[in-house]
Amino acid sequence: MSASELQRAEWLDPQFWDRLDRLESRHQHVRCEHSEARRGLERLSPGESTELREAWRRYCDVIAELDRAAAEFEALRTCGD
After folding, report:
1. Are 8 and 26 in a shared domain?
2. How far does Cα 18 stand from its chain's mean position?
């Protein structure tokens, strides 16, 4: 048994500690991915940065339109019930 396991409150469910361990591991992994992505963005030239912003704006516009269309489908579906 590790020292960290000895420090864990015995009154808490072991499943809680398993979930916490998985969450901490996932959090660390995502933090590493975030750092890598940030470093990649920092390496962009000004022109590439402008292109990326424009592509992101177009992407957000398309997602918003998809959301509106999905809402209209849902409204149509629920009115038909």
Report:
1. yes
2. 21
